[in-house]
Amino acid sequence: MSPRPGPRTLGTHRLAPEDAPSALARPQIRLHGDVDDRMFSLFREALERAEEGTADPVVLELTTFGGDADVARRMAGDLRLFGERAGKRLIFLGRTTVYSSGVTVMAAFPPADRWLSRETTLLIHGRSLAKTLELCGPLALERARVQAILSEIDAGLRLERDDFEQLVEGTGVGLAEVLERAPANWYLRAPEALARGLISGVI
Length: 203
Description:
Blueprint: E1 8-10, E2 13-15, H1 21-24, E3 29-32, H2 37-52, E4 58-64, H3 69-86, E5 90-99, H4 101-106, E6 114-116, E7 121-124, H5 139-168, H6 175-181, E8 186-189, H7 190-195, E9 201-202
Parallel strand pairs: 3-4, 4-5, 5-6, 5-7, 6-9
Antiparallel strand pairs: 1-2, 7-8
Helix pairs in contact: 2-3
């Protein structure tokens, strides 16, 4: 275990990094696989059980190669609402691979409540678009079609920036660095993520 030193204040909690590992041994929410509608359904069921239960903190364990960015944003939003509504501390535990949309889920947790197993790798990258556009019609109509795609891209970039801001807030990584490195796929192993302040500890 290689936690960052020093106490942290989270709401009404004042904790030292060594307080978290005992809870990490018993995750209440375990998610593995693609971030998709199926995972979201399992996530919601587990989150509701956690809200009704007595466990505090609540640990979410995640292993994923990524998936649907919008599903990940919905999960992240629900996690933030859960913390506000239930008044319970949430802790993230990444295992083995936390890629792409998985990092969006991790970003819902403050850095002090993010942990990775030692063998874990993060992958930070931007949103992508797969679409074929064939132009064959009146120019006014085709211009409108092109503009619609540009608007879709711009909206995606705004969401991407919001997610990256959540990820780096309170860490040693700046937004400019993420925006520069994400298009080429930024892989970070757990010790590097710890050194950059993206997580609180490695187990």
